[in-house]
Please model this.
Amino acid sequence: MATDAPLPSWVVLNSTVRIAPGAVENEPEWAIKCSHRQAYPYAWRGVKEASASMARDVTLLARLVEPPDLSSLYIRLPADELRRPRFPMPDSGNGDDDEIRDGDVSLSEGPLLRASVRAADEKLVILTSTLPDCDRASFYLIYNATKTSLSMIPLLPSYCSPSFTMRPLPMRRRSGGDGGDGDYSLAIMARTSVLDEQTRDPIDRDVLCLWPPPASAKPLPLSGRRGIEPWRVKQPHFPSQTPGSFVADTAFWADLAHGVLYCNCDDVLAGGYDVQFHYLGLPMECRLDDVDSCTGRGNPAEHRTMSYVGDSIKFVSIGDGLHPELKVWALLPATMEWKKLHELSMATLWGLEGFKNAGLPENLPIHPILSTQQDGVLYLVLPAEEKVEEDIVVAVEEEDVAVTEQRYLFGLDVCNKRTLSSRHLPDSGYLLGFDMFRCLDERCLCPHAAPSTDENGARPIPATRKRKLPSSPSPP
Model:
């Protein structure tokens, strides 16, 4: 069905990437243009062939709709790719060719491919994905909208595992503006065991892993393991006030219970091997330094978020307790201090006319998502019922695991204290905000998805929908 409605500039994206053997029927779809592809495969024979084939044949599709409806990304592969015999991944992580033999295959039915969105910003969309014939997540798929290119690189091996988060942090030189030349590095903080150069004893060390690596990055320090190519590393130096239990789980290396670790992007991309980090704690009333050992840390990300909005970093905290409140803070770059912008009690939220008229349940909202297009607007997930076990609210611990309980998504204008539209949520993975102008642009989207065979290898399904591309926002 043709329509002249423009695409939204900001959407709520389901992190679970759907697998589409053929065209996506009955949904407004866009093919994401890809003019250049490259793959950095593992050394194992079967996996090398499968990864090269996937990088060559994969098509990315997007379904982009106005919130509170959910937008989605799709991966489309030819039917024969999804029917490949499966190769198990070796556990050793040492990359020996003889770990996988041509006869070690599994013919179990159904595609094994799983993918999810990890990060989206600065003209980059980053997914993690398995291969159709492997039984473990093994690759990052990086789409570069500036160059309309797709890169496929291995996850870090088990002997150099991410210590904060698997979400890569896109880094660009500030002198490069918005990164119009397409040059960037993905950064992941990791922990590895290396040999002390003097005693030759193994010691644990933090490393900053980078891809594509700047010239000043080095191979993984001397160890008894193989390298981590195509990744290379730099040596981070953390300030003394960094909490020992620091666990970053957002793109800013932010621990939503404690504070933020940050560094200068130019130091990483153009400086030397050693990178100095700085630490800033959360507002005092939001720090969760003392946690009941019986309950553990819980999952702060369920009730908190942090994101760039305009020229500042915004932090949202939904507190529990006797008088739960939603608070929005801004980190001012000039002073590096937190300023409280908004405060809203749950009693006030539940009493809003729009909230009552929508028939939403009076429960504590979770998973706040900040809009980068509308100041003071955020979207929240509202469970129909709170799960309680021994008087403790049970948190969702894995953001990649689909949640099947009944939930709602609603918009909230916290500045004007009014609710926006709402909808019942289908089963979905973790939700994230997706800014069209920061992640993609009109050059990347084709209004007609390329024809493809359906899941049985039958005739192509033509794309017949026409929609206007979004116009870029006017400069201030």
About this structure: The CA atoms of residues 4 and 465 lie 10 Å apart. The chain has a mean pLDDT of 77.
